[in-house]
TrEMBL record:
Residues 215-414 form the Major facilitator superfamily (MFS) profile domain. Its main location: membrane. It is found in: Cell membrane. Keywords: Membrane, Transmembrane, Transmembrane helix. It comes from Kutzneria chonburiensis. This is MFS transporter. Pfam families: MFS_1.
Length: 414
């Protein structure tokens, strides 16, 4: 039986947590704002969506590939220093991309791709670090509530970022929007580092005198790999739904509806996260994942070619109801990652999760595109539901995650 979960009111009473949580969310705003700003800037520069895709892919690959390394650096060194270095590096990289797009012809796109890859390697690990430190701040009893709050608030950030980018583009243009995104990444990284320092988590880890740690790879732990696989499958399903909804509105000749439908999906997630933290404390993880599978499967049923004509309101209702399981499912994934990793390696663990979800999202986009071209939006959404069913099986029948042991060896003394 799960322990009762504390609510939002309990979290607000934790000293320093509200401010730290706020800055951790603002530190991710640049992530959701950048794709819109960067895509519009690059297409205006090159007049080629292929180049937009190549640059975006290089940036994403860099972010995913370096995520475990950034996490390991956070576990073993000063998180404040890491945030400062990556913030400067990431903002500088975006600034170089803007400068290149403003001064060189489109034939120089390979240089921009290379710079994007390096920039991705310097991505600021705000989400990794925050998810790793939450259990240290609130303890085991409130950790599930905090992960639910994070998954819910992340939906707000995902929606707000593109709106911020669109506002800057409308006022000053896409080149300025990318620059503002880089500046936002730098400032939020520095402020988040300062907030961590105020709660005593911004410095070097405590040394282990007389011992050296023999570290096994986290990927050698079966329960940890299983949870990472669950995160990959869930993320791939979300990407499949998002792309399919956009494609459906494009095929209808009403692309503006994509924003309305995505808003319904997001509002459902917000409602689900609020309900979980307020009325359904301690809900087991398996029903959460099952709810997500059912919601996505229901969406597949009301999309072409299964149904050629369907009232728009019905699609919005299905998206909203299906979305209510998103934040609870993501929160369950965060909880399991934390449970399956040692306390002093949680930033690395969430780095592996970030790498898996980045790869899962990229692969899902490719496969969903193929299915969309061949069969229409219902099939990629159904494939997404099938992925969540696999995640459900792994959640329901996998071994309970345990904290891997860390072997220590006494150092020779003089």
């Amino acid at each position: 039986m799960s322990q009762p979960m504390g609510g939002v009111k309990d979290l607000l009473k934790v000293p320093g947590l509200p401010q730290l949580f706020l800055w951790s969310m603002l530190g991710r705003l640049n992530v959701s704002a950048l794709p819109v700003a960067l895509a519009l800037m690059l297409v205006r520069w090159s007049n080629s969506y292929v180049i937009v895709g190549l640059v975006g892919c290089a940036l994403t690959l860099g972010q995913g590939a370096a995520a475990p390394l950034r996490g390991r650096a956070a576990d073993r060194g000063s998180t404040g220093r890491l945030l400062m270095i990556t913030g400067i590096g990431y903002a500088t990289g975006l600034g170089v991309i803007v400068a290149l797009a403003a001064t060189v012809p489109a034939s120089g796109w390979p240089v921009v791709v290379a710079v994007a890859l390096v920039t991705g390697l310097s991505a600021v690990p705000v989400s990794q670090i925050s998810r790793a430190v939450w259990p240290k701040i609130v303890g085991a009893e409130l950790t599930p509530a905090l992960y639910t709050a994070e998954a819910t608030a992340s939906e707000v950030i995902t929606t707000t970022g593109p709106l911020l980018a669109a506002a800057v583009i409308a006022v000053a243009g896409p080149f300025w929007a990318v620059g503002v995104t880089g500046l936002l990444a730098l400032v939020s990284a520095l402020v988040f580092a300062a907030a961590l320092s105020r709660v005593g988590l911004g410095g070097e880890p405590l040394p282990q005198h007389g011992k050296r740690v023999a570290r096994r790879s986290l990927l050698a732990e079966g329960p940890f790999v299983r949870v990472v696989a669950i995160a990959l499958l869930v993320t791939a399903a979300i990407f499949a739904v998002n792309l399919s909804v956009v494609a459906w509105t494009q095929n209808m000749g009403r692309p503006a509806l994509a924003g309305v439908l995505t808003a319904g999906w997001t509002l459902g997630s917000l409602a689900g996260g609020f309900a979980l933290s307020t009325f359904a404390r301690g809900m087991p993880r398996t029903p959460r994942v099952a709810g997500m599978a059912v919601g996505i499967a229901a969406l597949a049923v009301v999309l072409p070619p299964i149904l050629d004509t369907v009232p728009l309101w019905l699609v919005i209702v299905v998206l909203f109801l299906g979305g209510t399981a998103i934040a609870p499912t993501l929160a369950a994934t965060y909880e399991q990652i934390a449970e399956a990793s040692p306390q002093d390696r949680r930033a690395e663990a969430f780095g592996w999760m970030a790498m898996a979800t980045t790869g899962g999202g990229a692969l899902s986009m490719v496969l969903s595109g193929v299915l969309l071209d061949s069969f229409g939006p219902a099939l990629p959404v159904a494939a997404g539901a099938a992925l969540v069913v696999v995640a459900l099986v792994l959640t329901a029948f996998g071994r309970t995650p345990r904290i891997p042991s860390t072997d220590t060896v006494e150092e020779a003394t003089a």
